[in-house]
Task: structure prediction
Amino acid sequence: MKPQTEAELAEIIAGANGPLHITGGSTRPIGRTKGAALSTAGLSGVTLYEPGALTIVAKAGTPVTTIEAELAKENQRLAFEPMDHRGLLGTTGEPTIGGVVAANVSGPRRIAVGACRDFALGVRFVDGSGTIIKNGGRVMKNVTGYDLVKLICGSYGTLGVLTEVSLKVLPNVETTGCVLLHGLDDATAIAALSKALGSPFEATGAAHLPNGIDGVSVTMIRIEGFEKSVTYRAEKLRDLLKGFGEATIRIGSEKDWASVRDVSALADQKGDVWRISTKPSDAAALTAVLGATAVQYDWGGGLIWALMPEGADLRAKLGACDGHATLIRGKADTSTFHPEPAPLAAITTGLRAKFDPRGILNPGMMT
Amino acid sequence: MEMPAPDASVLSRKDQIVERLRSVLAADAVISDIAETRAYECDALTAYKCPPLCAVLPANTDEVAAVLKICHDMGVPVVPRGSGTSLAGGALPTADSVILGVAKMNQVIETNYDDRYIRVQTGRTNLSVTGAVETNGFFYAPDPSSQLACAIAGNIAMNSGGAHCLKYGVTTNNLMGLRMVTMDGQIMDIGGAHLDSGGLDLLGLICGSEGQLGVVTEATLRILHKPEGARPVLMGYDSSEVAGQVVTDIIKAGVLPVAIEFMDRPCIEATEAFAKAGYPMCEALLIVEVEGSDDEIDYQLDLIMKIAASHNPVELRQAKDADEAERIWLGRKSAFGAMGQINDYMCLDGTIPVSSLPFVLKRIGEMSKEFGLDVGNVFHAGDGNMHPLILFDANKPGDLELCEEFGAEILKLCVEVGGCLTGEHGVGIEKRDLMNVQFDPQDLEAQMAVKDVFDPAWLLNAAKVFPLETSRSRRAA
Ligand SMILES: Cc1cc2nc3c(=O)[nH]c(=O)nc-3n(C[C@H](O)[C@H](O)[C@H](O)COP(=O)(O)OP(=O)(O)OC[C@H]3O[C@@H](n4cnc5c(N)ncnc54)[C@H](O)[C@@H]3O)c2cc1C
Result:
């Protein structure tokens, strides 16, 4: 089913008599669910773009590339840098903005400017009863009523099917610089990233690739802005990080960050892919006990991408930690999403029962 | 403003309720004497007052849980309170309610500079969070003008903003985790020292829920290193249209200032008389601040000054030193106080799309004449969050009502042009009955369904946020 209007979508859901599997561009098959396919790809187009107000409103099925092209005309961008999952998950198709919001997809810049959820200003969605609901709006500051925008963002279509999203955008930057350290072990690299992120020099990316290029680890810190300022801050960071070795500076290179964003390092390797969000200073010790085939650190160490032998239960090895692990790719015999402590699980169940009383929207998806 | 009639059965059981609360709290933590409960009869929306049944000041999360359990069991309404600086009446009690104040819970639990967070009890004031980390060069970014007094508890409940949120975001963008107690006494941790949720984003849902979903007792907050420096420029223009255009042009040029503040003529005049900041007398004044090293600031300000100069300013002044920077900010910071010198005022908080600024200011000016009440406008222009200050005389019969009517018209206008009723102060009781202007019944139903999950009996701060008529059946149940 591929409705062309919000009203049509609402009618389909109201009239559904079984589970629905909701898709945007089908590029992020995370989580397991069954049901009749319901695509939002027919709801497409930018409905409002106000560069001077830093806001864009688009229907949920609008391709991300359409949004990016529209923003580029005004030299603006989606600052939360949504990851493209196609390489890692081996999918084809066209990522949609609704899918980005539904999965709260962000990239390396999340560490500095926030996640997709921080840029989501408003939503329209259809709940599990077929009721059309709006929340938030198109202005940057809005505390009118409960923030259901955040609740819907990252709910993977289980509370409602997005029909329209409104996002805050930011100006593009003049140039990008990168400060690189070489040959550090994980713990030392993360300490270096912490030092950079705890400085006034505004790093907008902080990643560590243990296998680097040619097997030598590389630790990357990104700085963005006006050319003069980028050079200045890159040099400051190099001085600040002297204790971690001689850093190299690269000005004007963006493409390395696209591969960090899309986790290209793990894309073509066999195995299950897990995504762990944790406290950065715990990350190296956590990784040490995983027995992972390969890992990549982003967000100053707070985001670990781990390639695990097929079927391995990473969570069992991880034990109790500050954070959570999600199975992004693979068939491990465990839940996709991190089990919640009992009181939170009860609230989650309660919310689902309210927004989707018949349990027909992507049932089982977020378990 | 109507408030629900107090529950007579609760009023009649006051002694038993107080006795049970005394059994779980220190003797001085239960305040039931009518002379003393007066201290909790209102927040900063002082037009509305009502002493609570009693007030409690627990010392830790376990005590909060014990209090809530008792109130839950006995069917007693609870109103959470931080520092009582809400401008929306969010902390206004009803006569049958227990005020649960977190003011005694003001400790720092942990600071972690490597992972850039601080964990505090929520009774701690906003400014003292920064106070706890500034010797290490760090700060907590959201900075409401009330930051000396307001508590993190209230900031989280209202999702408060500040002058620098154009760059750093509001409370929800700087909150990493919290500990909360639901009305039935259950303690839960949400989020932590990591980013983003592994399930539904309950953290984002609770932030801004105005004390209706649970009592937040601890918070993990993101801290940042201070910038190397900051510097403001001041610009004056002959019309608000032009000033609005300057704001848009700056934003479109790709510079992202940390703050863009706007004041109109009535506000400039009041401020000058009060603070003598040396502002030019003109229709619209902008203060734009950027951050970085000296060189970086020079570069950004150069761009901004060029844009500003191309629009025929009546005045364009860049701070040359810290002293001048302070003088530029002085007027803005004393604007509320200055307006207060003239008369009583009501501070509105609607947000509009930046592009509607000139139109909305013009309409407010016209309405000011129709209602016969003066208005000054001072606000965060970068994000469209307006603060019209309507002047009235509280001692003049009917003036408050007239002022409220005028305020409601302005907020309706904000919604009409694509904005919202409140950008940072919250709905509380003040905008409660206007919610229907912005939302359709099913939108409000979805929000109320959330409260049903957290607080099925609607005992927690229940007479706020939703129009009384809309929430009546739930509150009566
Ligand atoms: C002069 C002045 C300037 C201001 N400037 C700004 C500004 O620039 N930006 C801005 O955003 N606001 C501003 N405010 C409004 C106000 O300061 C904020 O809303 C503030 O966050 C309220 O904090 P508080 O601790 O005083 O909360 P209170 O007034 O005590 O309570 C506010 C709300 O929070 C709830 N609450 C309190 N504690 C808890 C808890 N532990 N758990 C759950 N809910 C709780 C209450 O029930 C109530 O609904 C200003 C107010 C004044 C008087």
